[in-house]
What we know:
CATH class: Mainly Alpha
Number of helices: 6
Helix content: over 70%
Strand content: under 5%
Distance between the termini: 25 Å
Number of domains: 1
Shape: globular
Order of helices and strands: HHHHHH
Amino acid sequence: MYLNMLKQEEKSAFYSLAHALAVSHEGISEAEHNVLNSTLQEMGISKPAQLLDVKEACTVFVSNASKRIALLELLLIALVDDDFADDEETMVSKIVDYFGFDTSNIDRAASWAESILAGHRSGLRFIQG
């Protein structure tokens, strides 16, 4: 939704974070795989040849706005399969810490992500009749 607002280098760093989050537990679900592909399309980039580690990727985000965009979008990925696994929660907490945010930001962003996903699913049901 907001990934097009990121700078070019932040887009590649975001994909590294998104991929790390998706593989943080029992592999990538089909829903997570679809969202990862959608993020590439939304950002207008190809899959980076080399992924950054989580800490290094987090340092690419300088402004609080870009960090918040990353957090919101990462929670969409974490929640898309209706399972915020412990490993995903640990990864998000680590990213929030690297960003210098308070952990209360996780709850706010998760609430937003859940409402967006509910609206998306409702729209799909309407489209499908």
